[in-house]
Design brief:
The complex is a heterodimer.
Chain A (H helix, E strand, L loop, with lengths): L1 H16 L5 H11 L4 H12 L14 H37 L4 H11 L1 H16 L3 H7 L9 H11 L2 H26 L8
Helix pairs in contact in A: 1-4, 1-5, 2-4, 3-4, 3-7, 4-5, 4-6, 4-7, 6-9, 8-9
Chain B lengths: L6 E10 L2 E11 L4 E5 L6 H9 L6 E5 L4 H6 L1 E4 L10 H11 L4 H14 L15 H13 L5 E5 L7 H16 L3 E6 L2 H7 L2 E6 L2 E7 H6 L4 H8 L5
Parallel strand pairs in B: 3-7, 3-8, 5-6, 6-7
Antiparallel strand pairs in B: 1-2, 1-4, 8-9
The chains are: A mainly alpha, B alpha/beta.
């Protein structure tokens, strides 16, 4: 999620403040990619990282790194799109002021990202939600190897397949608890509901 | 303080979608004090101010400052009719332009406290700017515009929709800024305000400057028929 945010948030800010030739196309693409089927992403990453693929020499297939790459590709469009909506509204509010202050593009982006941080937290959490529940892509590129690339979701899928419903359900509860804890912790740290509206 | 004046507009105009909003304007502004741009609603006051500031695109003619245009913009601020406040505290709003210029945080905070005191916002320094009243927000916007000690501040109807008390307070701040050597160019359609604070008047109608000169002669003996009618309170278009 952190890596995805590092890519998606500056991208969203850039799309909000900068007018360039393919801006609308980029925004439309990002919106469309929000619904990217994870299994297809997994397949494409698999092809790229497999021994005969262009990045096969890196030996990343069936490693946690491959899983992170797939997850980032899946959640960047989601975070960027949701963040862009918030930043676009804020930019409409700030536009005249920042233009009159001769603020550079980078400073505009920094200002928007800072002042919209609470809304961006929601975007990040949406990405986290999608990432933590993901199975298809990481199963393909990670291989679900015990003690290496097996995560809660892939373990649940495996145990369900084996008929171990009790264990699968228990892991499911752990996953839900984990998701809730992270969400609550981030809301608490971000003080999202403490000071009412800005 | 950098000398920006004289400011010379030669056949300056701006059009949008084929419609001329302002111009062609030939105008020279120099000297010190407070210049008030007056005219009825839709006369082009805001656009003229934006054009001079560089926030509206010049589609014809030229605008010349005494120094390089880029440098001139560094020494100007703009206050909007509807105050724009950052979603931050009052203090953070005030330090924002200083931090952009690389002023150290501690020094910026000192300046923020000083300006908050000058405009009467010191009890609100730690409050979110969004909870301030309309008049307080405008005072904050003016203090933020003045905190960098610009040579020139444009103010677009800064007291429109404010009550008498807030208007008086803001006029006091502006007169103090003028006394400190800041050149102010303000638009208004409030004749009472123009009479109270103007040193120089630019009368604009239909996007064109009809009259320009020192305030007193203008209000006593306006030269053009349009200005006479406007000052009489007639509807002019």
């Amino acid at each position: 999620m952190v890596i995805a945010c590092l890519i998606a948030l500056p991208l969203a800010a850039l799309l909000a403040v900068r007018r360039f030739r393919f801006r609308r196309t980029t925004i439309a693409m990002l919106n469309a990619l929000m619904g990217l089927p994870p299994v297809v992403v997994g397949l494409i990453v698999y092809i790229f990282l497999s021994r005969s693929g262009p990045f096969g020499a890196l030996g990343l297939l069936f490693t946690p790194t491959a899983m992170i790459i797939a997850q980032v590709i899946i959640i960047v469009p989601l975070i960027a799109s949701v963040a862009h909506q918030s930043l676009r509204e804020l930019w409409a509010e700030y536009h005249d002021l920042l233009i009159s202050m001769n603020v550079s593009q980078l400073q505009k982006m920094q200002t928007l990202l800072w002042d919209a941080r609470r809304a961006l937290l929601t975007a990040a959490l949406a990405g986290f939600g999608r990432g933590i529940g993901e199975v298809g892509a990481i199963m393909i590129v990670g291989g679900n190897i015990d003690n290496a690339t097996r995560v809660l979701t892939t373990a649940i899928a495996l145990e369900t397949g084996k008929g171990e419903f009790a264990l699968a359900l228990a892991l499911g509860f752990v996953l839900i608890a984990l998701a809730l804890t992270v969400n609550l912790a981030i809301h608490w740290i971000g003080q999202t509901e403490r000071d009412s509206r800005w | 303080m950098t000398d920006l004046f004289p400011l010379t507009l030669r056949a300056a105009e701006t059009t949008r979608r084929g419609k001329r909003l302002v111009g062609p304007v030939d105008l020279t502004l120099d000297g010190q004090g407070l210049c008030v741009v007056i005219g009825p609603n839709g006369a082009g006051k805001t656009t003229l101010l934006r054009l001079m500031h560089g926030a509206a695109r010049l589609t014809g003619g030229s605008i010349q400052w005494a120094c390089d245009t880029k440098e001139a913009r560094q020494h100007q601020s703009f206050v909007f009719q509807q105050p724009v406040v950052l979603r931050r505290t009052v203090e953070d709003n005030l330090i924002y332009p200083l931090r952009l210029r690389g002023v150290p945080r501690s020094e910026a905070r000192r300046a923020a406290r000083d300006w908050a005191q000058r405009v009467g916002l010191d009890p609100h320094l730690a409050h979110r700017a969004s909870v301030l009243s309309g008049g307080e927000k405008q005072k904050l916007a003016i203090a933020r515009a003045l905190i960098t000690k610009p040579a020139l501040v444009f103010l677009d109807e800064p007291t429109a929709s404010l009550d008498g008390r807030a208007m008086r307070e803001i006029e006091g701040i502006l007169l103090q800024a003028k006394a400190d050597g800041t050149r102010l160019i303000l638009s208004t359609h409030d004749m009472g305000q123009a009479r109270r604070i103007a040193d120089e008047v630019v009368f604009i109608l239909g996007g064109a400057v009809h009259e320009k000169g020192p305030a007193e002669p203008f209000f006593d003996r306006p030269e053009t028929a349009e200005a006479q009618a406007f000052l009489k309170g007639d509807i002019v278009e």
